[in-house]
Amino acid sequence: MSARFEELAWSETSMGTLSLRRRVEPSILVDVYEVKLGDEYLMSSLFTTAEIELARLGLAELNRDGLDVVVGGLGLGYTARAVLEDPRVASLVVVEALAPVIEWHERELLPDAAGLAADPRTRFVQDDFFALLGLDSGLDPASPGRRFDAILVDIDHTPRHVLHPRHAAFYTPNGVGRLKRWLGPGGVFALWSDDPPDSDFMAVLAHVFDSTQAHEVRFANPITGGESANTVYVAT
Fold first, then answer.
1. 53 vs 35: CA distance, rounded Å
2. Which of 151-155, 164-168, 215-219, 220-224 has the lowest mean pLDDT?
3. SS3 220
4. Contacts with 167 (C-beta within 8 Å, 6 or more apart), sequence order
5. DSSP letter for each residue of 36-87
6. pLDDT digit string (tens) for 37-53?
7. Is 47-235 assigned to CATH 1.10.3720.10?
8. pLDDT digits (tens, 9 = 90+) for 95-153
9. Residues 75, 116, 71, 96: what is their CA dihedral angle, to the nearest 10 degrees?
10. E strands, the chain, where?
11. What separation in angstroms does the CA of 125 have from each of 7, 70, 86, 138, 215?
């Protein structure tokens, strides 16, 4: 068995101390990979169902091939990997604010995301996703003005619980409207949230998009022995 605890990477960033850790979860005796920003847990490989469903639910709204996709927020890579598992995907741009997170994937420190960085469809952009939305060049600096079939976002905990105060402006009609600008005709925006469906944010989406849904994604929680749930918002 591997060591019970190991710190795989540690960096000081503009948002605080970022660390990637691996530990053995005693209740099920499996390796768990966790990300912390300061004292706050950002994500865990123990709970990835909704991150994967973010990709699947978003792409399910599209009925065409040759899909160009953006993922905002790389994290442990589960959403990006699920995007690449869809054979219709032609290209994937992953926008991640923190350079060390991209480096974890380039060094293949995360077994479940192995091959993500090496896939020829994938390109990493190290930048502030929310800031790029407001620039005329858009989300792909290598192709200014480029539009996409789907933009999938997993950055903040919820529309109300954000990682940085400047993110809050995104979860408004003007903020979501800036994102819509970078979708092609019939394009899809999907967002992960740790909270149950939020009627106020649904109203924001309905103000900007033609069709909106909130999917409650339930999954087994081996720590509590019960179930937990996240939300995936999908707007077209």
1. 20
2. 220-224
3. strand
4. 130, 155, 156
5. EETTEEEEETT--HHHHHHHHHHHHT---SSEEEEEE--TTSHHHHHHHTST
6. 887 888 888 889 999 99
7. no
8. 999 999 999 999 999 988 889 999 999 999 999 999 999 999 999 999 999 999 999 99
9. 50
10. 5-13, 16-25, 30-37, 40-44, 67-72, 89-96, 122-126, 148-153, 183-193, 212-221, 226-235
11. 25, 10, 21, 12, 28
In the block, residue with structure tokens 């920003």: 37
Tokens of 146: 């480029």
Give the Cα separation of 97 and 129 in Å (integer).
Answer: 7
What are the E-state strand segments in 166-211? 183-193
Antiparallel, parallel or unpaired: β 16-25 and 212-221: unpaired
How many CB atoms are located within 10 Å of the residue 126 CB? 15
| Count of Cβ atoms closer than 10 Å to residue 177 Cβ | 14
The tokens of 145 are what? 């003005």
Sheet strands side by side (includes 183-193) = 122-126, 89-96, 67-72, 148-153, 183-193, 226-235, 212-221
Length of the chain measured in residues: 236
* Domain map (residue ranges) of the chain: 47-235
Q: CA 202 to CA 208: how far, in whole Å? A: 10
